[in-house]
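Input.
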Amino acid sequence: MFPMVRARMVRAAAMALLAASLVAGLQACSGGADSDEARLVVYSSRAEHLIKPLFDAYTERSGVRIDFITGEEQPLIQRLLAEGESTTADLLITVDAGNLWNASSEGVLRPVSSAALESSIPAHLRDPQGRWFGLSVRARTLVYAPARTGPEELSTYEALAEPQWQGRLCLRTSRKVYNQSLVAMLIAEHGEARTEEIVRGWVDNLAVDVFPNDTQVIEAVAAGQCDVGIVNTYYFGRLKAQRPGIAAALFWPNQQSTGVHVNVSGAGVTRHSPRPEAAVAFLEWLAQPEAQAMFAGLNYEYPAATGVALDPLVADWGEFRQNLINVSQAGELQADAVRLMTRAGYR
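Output.
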């Protein structure tokens, strides 16, 4: 059996076992679902294979059937706006705090007051007004080629704008929200003028044209097209699971200053949810340790809640200090970030 196929089988078995443990551990506290609360509807921009195992586990635990629609985040938000009070959707699950902020600013999410959520999810990973909560963390960090550079040469996001990195940097396109959020957070830290200097330096230091996705950035680093890039950790996890010997490694930047830029996948209860109490109960369940381990582990991410076991591959990357600026800034400053990147020539 090929190593990649065997790894996938082992991973699938591990996730099935975790799902079974969730069910076994939680069925005892399930009293059955009221007929009016026996269904939830979720709109999700998170892929089906990353959410359905959780939905199935919750259905077994509670008797609540979860119907869902997957798609791109902006069409889903527009659908909620168009449906208004007639929507059947109870929750929106999406990726990136910028998208969650956009959903809340469009008015499609309702504030939720939940002691369980507030105690489980750190303050910087949730909306200050309670309209959405991060459920998994994706760190946007540095990937480098150990054969050509190393931790002794790496330090911060900002330092990648310095002349020593000329012709050595790879980046994903600025059109992706992940980079827009990173630049938005830099604006929150440094202001627009300094951030524009940084981004212009990145552009000047590019080894090749920008890539359409993070996977291609990692592959370019491994292939020798560049020495360092900026990527979300879960893309590295996916490649590492398929190609354990890939010639690339992760570095945690800004550990002596602001910390690693983090973002979230998260969820909120829709403003016109037909079943708001059941929706909040499901959201609270997603913040519990066992569900957190599955939510994050299915995609090589980090749990949003603290003290939750990590996927072994993720644990091997070591610990890091997060930037504690509230991730909602990624949305609030997104338009400024897009304009800044355009001015700096970052395509």
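The chain is about 45% helix and 15% strand.
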